[in-house]
């Protein structure tokens, strides 16, 4: 988290957990010199936001102590050079390759990703495969959910992603988002996939309508 401003209490808690790996609410309160009640309130908010995880540790016969640590999403709140490297690499490729070859490189990468997804999803029902796909995307930092699409026959579904794990890349290379759409289509070849919402257009989520092919 950039120190360009005075950190909020939540940011201070996240920074402490980054440095220490894990800590109890009492240890956090002591380290930050704030009340235990305030710490517990902030920890509850951070858990709701998916930024921290907790684990109950039993010591002896007493009540379990809860230890808190950053989730994958919580770690993503801190600066990383990975996105900058990816953007710089794509910049170099776009300068070195003709446009068609550059597009071919992107398409090849997304086809490989789709093949990986298909292997992981298996041959279950569409609902089961979409739940698994949402879980895979969630693990990659996309904050993905899947829900039934209302008033659709045959039944259809919507995958919603509230966070873009490749946002920095997409801002510099919007064409990457077109390949994201193709990624879902190739992952689910028995479905028609349509984008319904787009973060890059200023909306608060990306959405994809997944409909079985007739």
Tell me what you see in this structure.
Helices cover 50% and strands 18% of the residues. The chain has 214 residues and is of the alpha+beta class. It has two domains: 67 residues, Winged helix-like DNA-binding domain superfamily/Winged helix DNA-binding domain (Arc Repressor Mutant, subunit A, Orthogonal Bundle); 131 residues, Muramoyl-pentapeptide Carboxypeptidase, domain 2 (2-Layer Sandwich). The strands form two sheets. A four-stranded antiparallel β-sheet has the order 4-5-7-6, covered by helices on one side. The protein has a three-stranded antiparallel β-sheet with strand order 1-3-2. Helix 2 packs across helix 3 and helix 6 runs parallel beside helix 9. It is globular, with a radius of gyration of 21 Å. The termini are far apart.
Q: Based on the structure given, which CATH architecture of the largest domain is correct?
A: 2-Layer Sandwich
Question: What is the molecular shape?
Answer: globular
Distance N terminus to C terminus?
A: 48 Å
Low-confidence stretches: 1-5
Which structural category do the helix and sheet elements fall into?
alpha+beta
CATH class term of the largest domain: Alpha Beta
Protein name: Iron-sulfur cluster biosynthesis transcriptional regulator SufR
Pfam family, one: HTH_24
InterPro entries: ArsR-like_HTH, SUF_FeS_clus_asmb_SufR_cyano, WH-like_DNA-bd_sf, WH_DNA-bd_sf
């Amino acid at each position: 988290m950039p120190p360009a401003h005075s950190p909020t209490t939540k940011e201070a808690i996240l920074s402490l957990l980054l440095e220490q790996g894990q800590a109890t609410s009492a240890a956090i309160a002591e380290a930050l010199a704030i009340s235990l009640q305030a710490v517990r309130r902030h920890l509850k908010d951070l858990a709701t936001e998916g930024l921290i995880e907790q684990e109950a540790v039993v010591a002896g016969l007493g009540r379990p102590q809860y230890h808190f640590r950053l989730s994958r999403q919580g770690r993503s709140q801190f600066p990383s050079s990975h996105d900058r490297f990816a953007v710089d690499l794509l910049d170099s490729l776009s300068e070195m390759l003709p446009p068609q070859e550059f597009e071919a490189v992107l398409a090849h990468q997304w086809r490989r990703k789709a093949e990986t997804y298909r292997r992981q999803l298996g041959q279950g029902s569409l609902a089961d495969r979409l739940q698994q796909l949402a879980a895979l995307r969630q693990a990659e930092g996309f904050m993905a959910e899947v829900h039934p699409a209302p008033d659709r026959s045959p039944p259809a579904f919507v995958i919603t992603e509230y966070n873009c794990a490749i946002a920095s890349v997409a801002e510099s290379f919007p064409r990457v988002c077109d390949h994201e759409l193709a990624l879902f289509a190739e992952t689910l070849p028995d479905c028609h996939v349509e984008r319904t919402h787009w973060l890059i257009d200023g909306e608060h989520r990306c959405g994809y309508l997944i409909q079985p092919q007739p």
